[in-house]
Amino acid sequence: MTGPVSPGPRKRLFVKTWGCQMNVYDSARMADVLAPLGYAPAEAPEGADMVILNTCHIREKASEKLFSELGRLRGAKQAKEAEGGRMVLAVAGCVAQAEGAEITARAPYVDIVLGPQSYHRLPEMVARATRAAGHVIETDFPAEDKFDHLPEAAAPQGPIAFLTIQEGCDKFCSFCVVPYTRGAEYSRPAAAVIAEAKRLVAQGAREIALLGQNVNAYHGDGPDGATWGLARLLRELAEIPDLARLRYTTSHPRDMDDELIRAHGEIPALMPFLHLPVQSGSDRVLKAMNRGHTAADFLRIVEKLRAARPDLALSSDFIAGHPGETEQDHQDTLRLIREVGFAQAFSFKYSPRPGTPAAGAPLQVAEPEKDRRLHEIQELLREQQLDFNRSRLGLRMDILFTGPGRHPGQLAGRSPWLQPVHAEGPLSLVGQVLPCEVTATHPNSLAARILSSPGAAEATGDPPNQEKAAA
Hints:
The chain is an alpha/beta fold. Helices cover 32% and strands 22% of the residues. α1 (21-34) links the parallel β1 (11-17) and β2 (39-41).
């Protein structure tokens, strides 16, 4: 009588991710799809049986970074072949969607090129790539919903989990490639989102961040036959036992309706932090960007949000030097930043994206001028972030501890306003939401002391006007 057959050695999978949290989510789901084929995570690409580069087209020089990385991986692929093995090399994400033919022309050793709507087909693509020579390219927008083809089983994400609920964009901002690489807006059915959220909580998630290119444009089919907006979905998710916190990103001002604004004041689990990109404070530039709102529209939304949730903190995106931007336009942006006050923000120089309207627009701003304007924007935003962090000193707040800190005996966590927090404590506290007092502030983080009595803290679930307004 023979014993059970020992499984063969597992294949090693290395995934490198650029860009937003949606790409991070996609990378995790690609690993989930490949797990039944025997692929387990690898710490480095060297020696891996498969390497996936999950790309982002938003950041500057995205293509150059990709081809630089491919050049390095070519040697690792050749070394694997010299040992009698094979490395399947795949390029995924938005750069793959936009530049699939160019990738295989410039890097013919790439085996698979797949867009962000096709990664549920990875097992089939791997089989095709290993059976025959040549490239496998999947950059169509398939008619079927990729989420319907993903396995329910997924690797745990930890105390903070990300969940894609919406993809694509119908806004067609002049500077952005997302409508061309992610396709039209699509919202997942509410029941599927809720089911995945419950699985994440069962795996240990205490906070879930809902993701979408235009997440507040969510309009999913509800189990009651009605179309649910984001506010309705958030209210349902907030009822999941043991789910302490909810967030969502990224939003568009045009989709910030009154029902969603009210939700910020009525759902205790919805954290008092919102990323709401405005891009510019100039109406002339906003019109050229095809944003569909004015600076005054944005300010009215901010006023409503802070009336609903006085301790709400805001983050945003800014582009310096969009084609046609004048010095007055730049000053209008600085004026809006001063008027709103941001807890943090992201800012970038305008850089052309092939195929977008702004790329061929006249009156391109000179690079030195873009550099100067970006520096002024970033200096102001850095000052506001520092002021906001300082305003937290001495406050009592609930901190979600997510893992070990940098030093022995230290824990890392997140504040309700998404700030990194460090406190002394044992690892057994990871995954718990605990009352803490902020003892020191830094430009990018807070230090805190865990309180011995939870009742002494101002819980973030209490009425939201107990903390001071964000800015």
